[in-house]
Amino acid sequence: MKTMAASRLMIIAKKEFFDHIRSRKFLLIFGILLVVAIVGMIGGLSDYNKNLDDYNKHLSTIQSPLSSYMAEKPSILSVFSAVATYLVFVGGILGIAMGFDLVSKEKESKSLKILLSHPVYRDEVINGKALGGIAALGCALLVVLIIALATLLVYGIVPDGNELILIMIFGLVSFLLIFSYFAVALFLSTALDESGSALIYTMIIFIALSALVPTLANNTVTEFVVGSQPELPQELVDQMQQSVNKSDVSGISVTFSNKGNNGAWDAFNEKMQTYWEKRQMVHDTLALFSPTMNYESVTAAVTKQYTSSGMVVGASGSTSIVSSFNVVSAGDAGIDGIISTITANLIALLLFPAVFFGLAYLWFMRLDVR
Amino acid sequence: MILLEHLTKEYNGVRAVNDLTAEVPDGEIFGLLGPNGSGKSTTILMLVGLIEPTDGRCLINGLDVARNPITVRNRIGYMPEDVGFYPTLTAGENLTYFGQLYGMDAKILTPKIAGLLERVGLDGVTKPVGGYSKGMRQRLGLAKALLNDPSVIILDEPTANLDPQGVADYRRIIREVATSGTTVVVSSHILEEISRVSTSVGILSAGRLVAQGSWRDLASSVGNRSAAHITIRVETLDPMPAFSHPDLISAEYEQDRREAVIVARSDIRDDLAATLSEQGIRLRGLSREGLSLEETFLSYYQVAG
Description:
The complex is a heterodimer. By secondary structure, chain A is mainly α. Chain A has helices spanning 2-22, 24-61, 65-70, 78-99, 104-108, 111-116, 122-154, 161-191, 195-218, 220-226, 234-246, 262-287, 291-303, 330-365, and strands at 312-313, 319-320.
């Protein structure tokens, strides 16, 4: 009995898989994904080579042992950051394109009623559809990763074991990102009768989670919840002013510290620390609800994309604050450190599609097929 | 055999099917007749196991459909109204997919599909189903319903989009499968279609089964209790004498044609003949018209209403 059920599930999944990979929309978006991945890889490789040259020059010109420690060898993972920049949009759209009409199309073509009149359980149908979609998405992403690795090899770059693991993590989270939006689209395709409506609502959710939530997380909501940044007490402002007036015109000797008022400075620093920690907590909590932000956090950790200000520049152009514990350099903390850093994001990336797939499942099981 | 026991289905408190009990013996072609909204499609969806009854049950060959959906669906063939297929696949690919869901082996499936497509007149059509006309999809739907050699075939409005040749082919195929012992349930609001193909009929009105039996039985039953249309032909050009009768509804006399049409609640021909005879009017004819299909059908709705 179980064998028959598994067999029916695989029959449905197989049909869905081939439907996907034969469809024009899949081929078109997959083609775009390939092009942007290759363009991203080439751009990333160019930057990597430039950084490597700078690093080598730095090593050859500075003889001090201390200086050599200060320069960090660029990681080949940085090449993938450019791919992530494109993948966050094109991958999301690929997921949506594959899911938005998965059930609604069958309602529109009236084939759902005839399918369900066959000896299949409803859970086999919805699971088969999801499985077929996941397999097609997985294949698409695998091809992208293989091409990315091939591009590295063509440029004479051979990743070591740790780098390969990080590349695999990158592939996994990229898959989870695409699957997240696929699951949203599948749910709306199940809940709504028209594919057009399902597409529009999924796109609204995609835009909200990719652009609106990051903006809110960085500004509006955070300000609302945490309040304004603490202002420098007047006595410290006066003190600073006095220090500036007394200082040398060149400004080199200007100092904001005052040995006579350490207590006030410490109190202010503590307030600021608390403020930024709260702000970070609100940001991180909101970020967990956005697959795009989770993806950016994970890829930032994996590909080590920092700016000099200590901020991570998101693929969507949003800037998220990164606390000292949120991003760990691969070189500093190793793979274990990175994994522990991104665990919350990974769990969120797993939970998000699971919730929407669960909703799609429940809705489909109760679907009125009149 | 199909057995419906007190079948009831409610949607938001409204009864679409109300305490329906019926029995369809093996090899019967049972026509389920009723106007739009009478509960035909809801009854069929419960028969196929696509919706569960609020109360009562459907038994197909002794198996409760709601409790054994997979076993039952393995034994039935179903063609819904507005039958839909996967538009990017060909007829053969669609049938192969459905055949695989029945657990049919490719070795059996390939020649079986070729034979079925030939039987419904779709052999040689290689384009995807998306390019089919409604009639072609209906033919394919019939082939799909026959794919698993079912013991029960359930067809919802099967001839709605067929051309005359398609209708003739459909009738031939349905009679052939019924002859081999397969039970067929055909739902339609087209009286002509039901009367041409079915061996027995059930009339649904507002979710209730208001009549069940052969057409002849139903017409006879209606004839005994419905209005009679009596035509009188006389030899004289004189005006018709006054005639009164408790069952008389209307009387129209066309003097030029020497013909009167009487509508009465019962067959009052004997009383009419006696009255005319008393008045010395010789009759050329006194006939009662038989009920048409529509009259029989409508009569049951009037009774139910």
